[in-house]
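Action item from last week, closing it out:
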Amino acid sequence: MNEVSTCGIFEGETGHMVFTHSLPLITGRKYEMCGRLLQWSLAHGGPGLPVLSPAVYWLSHGIATTVSQELEHVPDASVRDNIKVVSRAV
């Protein structure tokens, strides 16, 4: 599963990773391959994928979050800082 977390479909720090959007990876079927590896791991009692951001889980399951919880998991520091500036101005 370490290979899946470093294959380019995620960005950010370990434990706080989010999915990237990359056309070359999509056309190269990299997302599909990584999904199958994850599926096989889970089917055989493997570790799953512990690198994802909790915010990805919360949002994909419709769990209410606050802006500050989601903001912690923005992988790009400059984008995170800009969001903080804008949110303070509103």
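Closing note: The first strand starts at residue 10 and ends at 11.
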